Amino acid sequence: MRKKVFSVLLCAAMATSMLAGCGDNSEPASNGGTTDDANANNDAAGGSDDADADDAAGGSDDAAGGGAAGKKFALVTKSAGNPYNEKEAEGFEDVINSLGGECIIKHPVAATADAQVSEIQSLISQGVDSICVAANDENALQAALEDAMAAGIKVSCLDSKTNAASRMTFANQAGTTEIGQALMDAVYDIAGGEGEWAILSATSQATNQNAWIEAMKSIMESDSKYANLNLVEVAYGDDEPQKSTDQTQALLSKYPNLKVICAPTTVGIAAAAKVLQDQSSSVKLTGLGLPSEMAAYIGDDDAHSCPYMFLWNPIDVGRLGAYISAALVDGTITGAAGETFTAAGMDNSEYTIVDAGDGGTEVILGAPFKFDPSNIGDWKDVY
Amino acid sequence: MAGKSGRTIEATPQDVWKKRIFSWEGMLVVLFLFINIFCRCISPNYTVANVLREMPKYLSEIFLLLPMAYILMLGEIDISVGSTVCLAATVACMATNANVPFVGVILITILTGAVCGMVNGFILLKFPELPSMIVTLGTQIVFRGIAEIMLGSGGSVSVTNTAGFRALSGEIGPFPYVFFLVLICGAIFVVLSVKTTFGRSLYAIGSNSRTSFYSGIKVGKIRFLVFTLMGTFAGIAALFLTSELYGANTTTGNGFEMDAIAMAVFGGISTAGGKGKMIGGLISAFIIVCLRIGLGQINMNPQVVLIILGALLICAVLIPNISAGLGLKKRKKI
Fold first, then answer.
1. pTM for the complete prediction?
2. What is the DSSP letter of A81?
3. Tell me: the pLDDT tens digits for B37-80?
């Protein structure tokens, strides 16, 4: 009996030291990451130097920088292990660090709203000043985010939005119609104006995916130019490489006359590209993909599966999200349409908040960027 | 295997067995206090108010733990509960959106869960030779399939009128309603398992269902009852989960069954059946919830949290075995 109690105490002590060890290890690691990122930022374009210069020049900007110092800015991504989200987090962290704020990045265990709610509740407990979230579900975060706003926390979204009631504003990587138009034109061009094509999406409830798919469908119906294109199926790969691979193979066997697959998701396009290229399929691919993952598949000849694709810069999406958070916290903006703020160090430094068409507001980063064989070599090492 | 056939109750001195069980629950209480002190030390925000505010999301899983413990005591398993939660939550949202009064929504949701549980129970009642793992694996897929059909192409539904669910997630002081409900249900489950014939027959069936059958215990009926109970509580869990998420989608309830099983096993309830106490499961549930909240507050990588919980679970299963082994050796020497 005594021995048993003793052994339990020993185990408990072991567990404590283990946990303490984890805590100690994780902190220097994240600090190390931060310094690296900060250096990268300086090396890249002297972004933070510019920011400092601007701050010194404009009185109000100076106040903005001062307002961010010592505040806690949190970002909740969709899930851990999503390279796109990690790039966004990198940009977010860069900006927050350069503004002198404290940055907390939360990667949920699974790509579910459920997991994000736990993270948001935890952030409320920590008394952060702002939460920026890439939502896994448009409505499911409402209760948690309302709690956050009731506690005085400034809530914004990036990448994938929540409903209007649970956000102040949204950093949109590109307007829905701009993306729909770019993808639709790519499909039209690659298919040669006619034939069967299919969409390989992420999960069936991903807000941004569904919005783009809807935009493509409405563009296709609105213009007779697209009349000979036949969308045969929208397949869902759930943003898992294996499932996306299976779905691509299913599309190939179900539709022998398929000409083009459009995958507006980074996981899906990479999986599909590998399948098509390995099988030397005549089916071509376009969509939204990460240059580093897609470099091996982009080319105009038959040996490559993807002639060209699109994306915006996820680092910039993260940076825009950070500037929005900072502006919300220091009171420059409240999230109402028509307000403007300065994102020092970004190309298009003056941003305006516009109506998002869902009862809320958004800030649009810009049009999607085209990656083709001529420029992929420059971008594949960037992200 | 050994748990089912090798147990000879008369040969084991009654009070030694009792003592061992008692000490396990005692250790859990110590661990619970220890975890709370530990979390308070690592996170300055680990206050009663914050913990209670973060808790409701995890509490819905404790509703699943209660009947799951009974199922494990029977020597069975139910891995369909996550899907049942998904289906019941979907029904709850759709009923609310169809302007059903909120009391009706509550009843329909719980009824949906109960029907799912009954399906499991009925199959196991009619075909007692089937392993419950396989039957519930089948219904897991079926229930989620039905939910996905109901959810349609969008894969998600959200509540348009959230008033009822907001009321449900209300609080008395810092304590959310669901907290009291969990405690009350927990107390009922503990008393049922310890003080009633029904509770004792759970252990008897778990130890040896054939002997129990020949002793006049209605094995099939009890199994049916417990699986229906499981479904009913999955319905209740779905109700409270919806009051946190205001909606349901195809991933709702993913992995809940395993969380519930993990909590029960950590609490000393053997998956082989016939062993363990309800109260242990309940304490271990709160240990896991508190640890998750505490580690979340210091922004520990959630994957690392999963590893820690997994390691704790293995320790929880190992320790009784190791100490039992030590005890045996000692006895042999003497």
1. 0.74
2. T
3. 999 999 888 988 889 888 888 888 899 999 999 999 999 999 99
Chain B residue numbers with beta carbons less than 8 Å from the beta carbon of A117 are 57, 244-245
Which amino acid is it at B311? A
Phi and psi at residue A199, in whole multiples of 5°?
A: -110, 135
Q: The domain B47-315 is classified under which CATH number: 1.20.58, 1.25.40, 1.20.120, 1.10.3470?
A: 1.10.3470
* Segments making up each domain of chain B, as ranges: 47-315
- Residue A302 included in any domain: yes
Among B169, B295, B303, the residue with its CB nearest the CB of A80 is B303
* Residues A229 and A337 placed together within one structural domain of the fold: no
Check CB contact under 8 Å for A122 and B315: no
- Name the residue of chain A whose CA is nearest to B249's CA: A205
Contact A1 B19 (CB under 8 A): yes
* Domain residue limits at A357: 43-173+314-365
Q: Which residues contact A69 (CB under 8 A, 6 or more apart)?
A: A99, A100, A101
Query: Distance between alpha carbon B137 and the CA centroid of its chain, in Å?
Result: 17
Task: Write out pLDDT tens, residues B222-238.
Answer: 999 999 999 999 999 99
Strand order in the sheet with A361-364: A102-106, A72-76, A130-133, A154-158, A169-172, A361-364, A354-355
Overall number of domains in chain A: 2
Q: Where are the beta strands (DSSP E) in chain B?
A: 156-158, 171-172, 175-176, 247-249
ipTM surpasses cut 0.85: no
* Count of C-beta atoms within a 10 Å radius of residue A171: 29
Answer whether A117 sits within 8 Å of B245, measured CB to CB. Answer: yes
Would the CB atoms of A210 and B154 count as touching at under 8 Å?
A: yes
Q: What is the CATH number of the domain that holds A348?
A: 3.40.50.2300
